[in-house]
Amino acid sequence: MNAPTEVRVDTVETILVDVPTIRPHKLSMHTMNSQTLVLVTIRCSDGTIGIGEGTTIGGLSYGEESPEGIKLTIDTYIAPAIVGADASRVAALMGQVKQRVRGNRFATCAVETALLDALGKRLGLPVSELLGGRQHQTLPVAWTLASGNTTRDIEEAERMLDARRHNIFKLKIGLRSVNDDVAHVAAIKRALGDRASVRVDVNQAWSEVDARRGIPALEAAGVDLIEQPLSRDDRGAQARLSGRFAVAIMADEALHGVRDAFDIAARGAADVFALKINQAGGLYDAARMAAIGESAGIGLYGGTMLEGGVGTAASAQVFSALPKLTWGTELFGPLLLTEEILATPLRYGDFALEVPTAPGIGVELDMDRVAFFQRDGFTPRIRATAATSGA
């Protein structure tokens, strides 16, 4: 009997795609007017093609990896290491990659996603079935209100509620004084009342003193969750906050992989984990971090790096395989973009995202749209479209 033919990685291709956002998206460290997606295509010897995405926020203002650096890492270091390797043994192959490439979690995630997408297509299974089995067909999705204008944010939230698209809202704060931020959040919560959950993301902007002032006021205003109020390095201080207040404190930027998850759980430095596949370093490690959180009694939240359709679909595959997502998800990245790059857009409705059911991560690219927004080199170039020009 002949042995089965081994399926190998033939080529790895990366491109940068710049897509405008529907409005400025203000964080404490950066204001986004567009999003840069690093798209990865892996072609295998049996003809299967896998796609992945590595996406961060604001160049290097958010973290240590930029879109340009992600592409360079994959092209120069990861691709040469995996071309010719067995494409069907994804976990083993990614273990070898992580021995040769330290850190660079976003680049690693993009490649792992593409390999898992190809494997799922080869086996005829969604990636969720390769990660323990799907337990949810839909996922609740929060929307971030980040214009910074109270009236505008309330109007935007009302439109989302009326359309039954979102009833969970996260507010980006930290740019203004604590008092001004609290007043902004409290006004929005009063306007929305019990119709919606209101949460805040401080993006590491507060000191412990600021947090001791701000958190009780936010708690009194009816805020349900406070995300990363302190610097990712201030774990002792965040542990003190988590034990002091009733409102849940969520770790986000502090979660740079499995070891961080274990350390935060051991210190009691968070009530909730924001799971992000890019920040975790891949789908496998995001699932491992979820297991640590669950074992420690920490709630889970499906986070986002504002990925486009590919990264969002991959995230949904992981999150749908988790037994419990107490705090839902915020997989709204594609909705923040003016243009769709998927052949068939992800489906949102009734305050949730439908998890794709097709093999792999369940989506395919619209290559004409991808080509339109693709960079010629490393310099960002946003083209005017009907959506951005007001036509």
Question: What keywords describe this structure?
Answer:
391 residues, alpha/beta, Enolase-like, domain 1, TIM Barrel, 2 domains, 7-stranded parallel beta sheet, 3-stranded antiparallel beta sheet, 13 strands, globular, disordered C terminus
Overview of the structural elements:
This protein is an alpha/beta fold and 391 residues long. It has two domains: 9-124 and 367-373, Enolase-like, domain 1 (2-Layer Sandwich), CATH 3.30.390; 129-354, Enolase-like C-terminal domain (TIM Barrel). Helices cover 39% and strands 19% of the residues. The protein contains 14 helices and 13 strands. It has helices at 67-82, 90-100, 105-123, 127-130, 150-162, 178-192, 208-221, 235-244, 258-267, 277-280, 283-295, 309-320, 367-373, 386-389; strands at residues 9-26, 31-44, 49-54, 138-140, 143-145, 168-172, 197-201, 225-227, 248-251, 272-275, 299-302, 348-349, 352-354. The chain has a seven-stranded parallel β-sheet. Helix 1 packs across helix 3. The protein is globular. The N and C termini lie far apart (65 Å). Residues 382-391 have low confidence and may be disordered.
Nutshell version of this structure?
By secondary structure, the protein is an alpha/beta fold. Helices cover 39% and strands 19% of the residues.
List the topology elements:
Elements: E1 9-26, E2 31-44, E3 49-54, H1 67-82, H2 90-100, H3 105-123, H4 127-130, E4 138-140, E5 143-145, H5 150-162, E6 168-172, H6 178-192, E7 197-201, H7 208-221, E8 225-227, H8 235-244, E9 248-251, H9 258-267, E10 272-275, H10 277-280, H11 283-295, E11 299-302, H12 309-320, E12 348-349, E13 352-354, H13 367-373, H14 386-389
Parallel strand pairs: 5-6, 6-7, 7-8, 8-9, 9-10, 10-11
Antiparallel strand pairs: 1-2, 2-3, 4-13, 12-13
Helix pairs in contact: 1-2, 1-3, 2-3, 5-6, 6-7, 9-11, 11-12
